[in-house]
Amino acid sequence: MPCYRCGTRQVDPDRGESPWKRGVREDRQVLICPGCQSAFDWTADLDRCPVCSSIHLVRRLGEVECRDCGSVGPSAAAALTAVVAGLASDPAGQGGRENAAVGLAEEVESALARVLGRAGRPAGVS
How many domains does the chain have? Predict the structure, then answer.
């Protein structure tokens, strides 16, 4: 993965701790090379923990974890997707999370069928 600012690629580090830093920016895991660390205020570009405002975040499997306070939550994209899915399946807000989960499951099943080249099953058929 290259530095998000200059595009320099990371090479295998010498023994010990790497001089490269990592963080989360715009909901993506990024690396910051030593040159950009000294030339820019790179910390201003990083996402912050909603609990403690730390920049020491890691993103994995759709979640963002704060290395300082241990807070774990959905990434901003995952949270937005859940909200949009809920609104799309129940615009009036009548059915709540159950309808959003069913709608999302159907969308995922349909997308997998398209990607894997399978014929989709009719909705509601298990």
Answer: 2
Whether 124 maps to a domain, the answer reads: no
Q: What is the span of the domain harbouring residue 68?
A: 21-74
In a domain, 11, yes or no: no
pTM, whole model, 2 decimals? 0.54
What whole-number distance in Å separates Cα of residue 96 and Cα of residue 38? Answer: 49
Cβ contacts of 70 within 8 Å, gap of 6 or more:
none
Per run of 10 residues, the mean pLDDT along the chain (length 126 residues) is 87 80 88 89 88 89 86 66 59 57 75 66 50
